[in-house]
Write a structure and sequence with these properties.
Length: about 250
């Protein structure tokens, strides 16, 4: 589902901590929180509303995955300190995903942000827009994952008899993937979109940590694929009609 180009949207923070399994002594650590896009605004409300789109079309698009501070999972770790972190390891994304974005109308090329371009102190969208500007990007696509775990008993506790090998628990993982599209020059918000994926399966108390993380990757992957579809719809709705390079009343030189 995507919102209008003037919409402000926030991502909920994922609670940090441990989920104690219903049987056995295993513990599952959540990978970390989603990034809260609200904290990236560095101006007052009046100045934010006064921002205008300035990107020409076709646009050079920079892309970055952002998460909460000190983000860490079994497959990736966030870079930078401050109010959020940037994940540069592609544990969810594929080359085909970026080729899919490159094929959108009015997209000149795609450039991911890497650590060499980023400040180690991340406080607002300004640091990301500065990194995107160093790539001569016109727009910046930011996305994040908000993933939560739940593990609970669904069958009688047979682990004492069966040495913990019976699948007497169900593990559920829910992921909401969210994205926002910014103007690199002005910070103008063109729009936002999100999608949610949920999976569950039986898992024994001895292996539920691995099972939950495997499902995390599956749900984040599915949520990301659906998010790409939502973003394609948002992009076409916003820019498909501007075949002559006109963006919200601004003509490209």
């Amino acid at each position: 589902m995507h919102t209008s180009k003037h919409a402000r949207f926030a991502l909920p923070l994922l609670c940090l901590g441990y989920i104690v399994l219903a049987s056995g002594c295993s513990r599952v650590m959540t990978p970390g929180s989603a990034a809260d896009f609200n904290i990236m605004a560095d101006d007052d409300i009046k100045e934010i509303l006064a921002r205008k789109p300035a990107a020409p079309l076709p646009a050079h698009l920079a892309v970055a995955r952002v998460q909460g501070p000190r983000y860490r999972s079994r497959t990736a770790e966030g870079y930078g300190s401050g109010k959020y972190s940037v994940v540069t390891v592609r544990d969810i994304e594929t080359e085909e995903d970026f080729a899919r974005l490159s094929a959108l109308p009015q997209v000149a090329n795609i450039a991911p942000l890497n650590r060499m371009l980023l400040s180690d102190q991340l406080e607002s969208d300004r640091q990301l827009r500065q990194a995107a500007a160093s790539l001569h990007a016109d727009m910046l696509l930011l996305y994040t994952f908000d993933t939560s775990f739940f593990v609970g008993d669904v069958l009688p506790p047979l682990s004492v008899i069966t040495l913990g090998l019976s699948p007497n628990q169900t593990a559920e993982v829910t992921t909401t993937a969210s994205a926002i599209l910014l103007d690199v020059r002005t910070g103008y918000v063109y729009g936002s979109c999100e999608s949610t994926s949920r999976k569950n399966q039986l898992a024994s108390a001895w292996t539920s940590g691995e099972a939950v993380d495997f499902m995390r990757l599956k749900t984040e992957r599915q949520a990301f694929e659906e998010l790409l579809g939502e973003f394609e719809a948002l992009w076409r709705e916003s820019f498909d009609k501007n075949a002559n390079g006109i963006t919200a009343g601004h003509k490209s030189p």
